[in-house]
Amino acid sequence: MSDTLADGVVRAIVSRALAEDVGPGDVTTEATVASGAQCRAEIVAREGGVIAGLEVARATFAALDREVAFEALVAEGAQVEAGAAVARLTGPARAVLAGERTALNFLQRMSGIASLTRRYVDAVQGTKARICDTRKTAPGLRALDKYAVRAGGGHNHRFGLFDGLLIKDNHIRAAGGIESAVRLARGSAHHVLRVEVEAQTRSEVEEALSAGADVIMLDNMSPDEVARAVGFIAGRCEVEVSGGVTLETVRALAECGVDYISIGALTHSAPALDLALEFGDG
Fold first, then answer.
1. Where are the domains of the chain?
2. Residue 172 — pLDDT band, cuts 50, 70, 90?
3. Is the pLDDT of residue 1 over 50?
4. What ranges in 138-193 are assigned the alpha helix state H?
5. I need a labelling partner for 127 at 20 to 30 A (CA). Which of 17, 39, 53, 91 fits?
6. Catalytic residue among 133, 196, 198, 204
7. Catalytic member of 168, 183, 186, 251
8. Of 133, 204, 219, 240, which residue is the catalytic one?
């Protein structure tokens, strides 16, 4: 997946966010700031973390007034310390004030996701395990959430239901078993889609392997259970771990020799990074 965001996707998301927040106009700013007033401002990190979403913030201000000049002072994915200026703005004060909260909302959320992802990536350094996201994203913001994971050094799992074949517990029940579900998937999916099967027990691992799964997802297993499953699979397919993974357990899981560790918390529970927009004098 690309390390950049499509312009059209960003514009559409920004447009919806501004319509929600600014609506027909920023009544406070219009009442207190002269229409021709100019400003200088910086976006400053109030805590250390990984920055992601600068281009989305830029697009937010540009959507309000293309005369706003937005200069990124750090690179996407950069680790910054508290007090660091991450972007500088100059131009029409009304547009900067109207876009402030929306731009910060994007930047804080995306930087929070990138920061949490980086902690997980650092925790498994030296193993072969890749830290991956899930579909547990904010509705309508999946492209931004998954981009932020990449900015933090993680990897994307499937984007949606359309680009990855993952047979989970309810699919297995509906299909009448793992073997049946895999056979049906092989018969209907196009040839470039790998078949991944969720397994919660050793017997399900054995069934999935026998059915010819390309990837087995070990769901909510302890490190000891994962180690035994990886030993049994013995390289005959790739192995993913998911469910209940924390910063305290991720290293032990990675050291079992798994290929992927998918973590919903990267996008559904990452705390926003504390950032502020501060006007300069004059």
1. 7-121+270-279, 123-268
2. very high
3. no
4. 142-151, 169-175, 178-188
5. 53
6. 198
7. 168
8. 219
Q: Per DSSP, what are the bridge partners of residue 105?
A: none
Question: What is the architecture of the domain spanning 123-268?
Answer: Alpha-Beta Barrel (3.20)
Residue pair 14/49 in contact by the 8 Å Cβ criterion: no
pLDDT exceeds 60 at position 2: no
Burial category of 183 from C-beta neighbours within 10 Å (exposed 0-12, middle 13-18, buried 19 and up): middle
What tens digit of pLDDT does each residue of 197-222 get? 999 999 999 999 999 999 999 999 99
- The SS3 assignment for 194 reads coil
Phi, psi (degrees; rounded to nearest 5) at 120: -70, -40
Residue 200 contacts by C-beta under 8 Å, 6 or more apart in sequence?
169, 219, 220, 221
168 is catalytic: yes
- Give the residue from 112, 62, 54 showing the smallest Cα distance to 87: 54
Span 55-64, pLDDT tens digits: 999 999 999 9
Catalytic-residue membership of 248:
no
Superfamily grouping for domain 7-121+270-279: Quinolinate phosphoribosyl transferase, N-terminal domain (3.90.1170.20)
Catalytic-residue membership of 128: no
Write down the catalytic residue from 40, 88, 119, 136. Answer: 136
Q: Is 101 part of the annotated catalytic residue set?
A: yes
Active-site residue (options: 101, 194, 202, 251): 101
